[in-house]
Amino acid sequence: MTTALMKHAVTAALAAALSVTAFSAAKADITDYEFRLVQTEVKHGKGAIVAVRLVEKRSGKAVPDAVIFATRIDMAPDGMETMAAPIEALPSTEPGVYRFKTNLTMAGGWRLSLGAKIQGETGTIENKLVLKATP
């Protein structure tokens, strides 16, 4: 293979690699992210702490600095959707982990609903997570 042919092959391979990288970055979508419970079971009572991790699904990496604007916690998993509890955001203890203080008045299934905006992404991420409050 001549030097000119070799340079052409390397240039073509580099161009192909760059176009794949650009296409992958352009395909980022709000559905590539999700909230995951840090713990699926939480002790019920006043001042219960519920923590979630926001991750980019393809890499599994935590996503810091999201703006969470919608939160709700209720007992929908146990058929009591109208039984909601107050919920308050707490400071994060690690990047990509979002913590909330709530009053899980009774043991059973609870649903945490979250809405957030992620910096650099278009759209809103919305997740509903089910956790269990234990006695």
From TrEMBL:
Alphabetical UniProt keywords: Signal
YtkA-like domain: residues covered: 28-114
Signal peptide segment: 1-28
Keyword Signal annotated: yes
UniProt xrefs under InterPro entries: YtkA-like_dom
Name this polypeptide is given: YtkA-like domain-containing protein
